[in-house]
Amino acid sequence: MLIRQTRIHPKDLILFEKAAAKVKACKKSGGMPLRRSGGPALMSACIRLAWGAVYVSLNLIGESGLYSCELNGVISISSPPSASGTYVHFDAGHTPSHDYLVPPVLKELRARKIHRIFDLGCGNGYVDSLLNRSGIETLGVDPSETGVALANAAFPHLQIHSGSAYDDLAAKWGVFPAVISLEVVEHLYDPFLWAQTAFQLIEPGGVLIASTPYHGWLKNVLIAATGKFDLHVHPLRTHGHIKFWSINTLRELLERTGFGPIRFERVGRGVPQLACSMIAFANKP
Question: Which one, of 73, 45, 49, 71, lies nearest residue 59 by Cα?
């Protein structure tokens, strides 16, 4: 396997070589998914069958930012996105977080008999595609040009448009029984505007379903005690998380916007105190 270098930080070469070794091992073992097998540096991995060959698409975070790597005998590495650009998506496929985020969302929508939702920050459109398969009509917006383009190419039957929480979305699209916004609020400079935009998009009696990485005292202590704080907040990362929410702070944000009552569910890892994410189910009176 060859590595083609494109403005790569020297430390990142080690990361890519490890990824290449894992792909070789994966092919030999029959093509088992690589789901986060590269540790924190490996953001997502999915293996697809393309014309009978195993095709692997990886998103990796290195010292210089986010790279896209396509491994099929040769590793092609794209340059990191510029700090001034929007978030970059490299495919419209599955990521590990979908496994623990989508089932509770779908369960809540079914329990409420909701068949039409607005996705505020739909990313690459993959979640909307899963909901649509379950009979739910979706309309999603995202500020990422690559995300919207990939979503429209992969899911042409879905309504995916450019837009953000900073736009007057209700004036353009109207109101909905539910708004979902998964893993979005941790990226935003103005979370109050995000919450207000979501509130305006929801019809009376509707619900906001919003997720964000979970932070609680035990998880915070373990992150610090194990020396993982720098990796967790990762200030050298292009884009990334700029807000770190607890149940109390997210509840206060939503209550001050007018939502209530609000219920939280912690998901991922199986131990609530160490959950990957939390989901808020916030009712609009």
Answer: 45
**Number of domains composing the chain:** 2
pLDDT tens, the chain, 285 aa long? 333 333 445 555 555 566 556 555 554 544 433 333 333 333 333 323 222 233 334 444 443 343 444 444 333 434 344 333 567 777 788 888 999 999 999 999 999 999 999 999 999 999 999 999 999 999 999 999 888 999 999 999 999 999 999 999 999 999 999 999 999 999 999 999 999 999 999 999 999 999 999 999 999 999 999 998 888 888 877 778 999 999 999 999 999 999 999 999 999 999 999 999 999 999 999
Give me the CATH number covering residue 127: 3.40.50.150
pTM, rounded to two decimals: 0.74
Q: Distance between CA 76 and CA 82 in Å, rounded?
A: 19
117 with 220, same domain?
Answer: yes
Q: Name residue 266's beta-bridge partners.
A: 278
Residue 160 shares a structural domain with residue 232: yes
- Contact status, residue 58 vs residue 47, Cβ threshold 8 Å: no
Q: Are residues 250 and 124 in the same domain?
A: yes
Measured distance CA(22)–CA(38) in Å, rounded: 8
Contact status, residue 189 vs residue 239, Cβ threshold 8 Å: no
Spatial contact of 262 and 247, defined as CB atoms under 8 Å apart: no
Segments forming the whole domain that contains residue 21: 2-77
Cα distances (angstroms) measured from residue 42 to each of 96, 119, 243 = 11, 26, 22
| Strands 262-267 and 277-283, sheet pairing | antiparallel
DSSP letter, residue 82: P
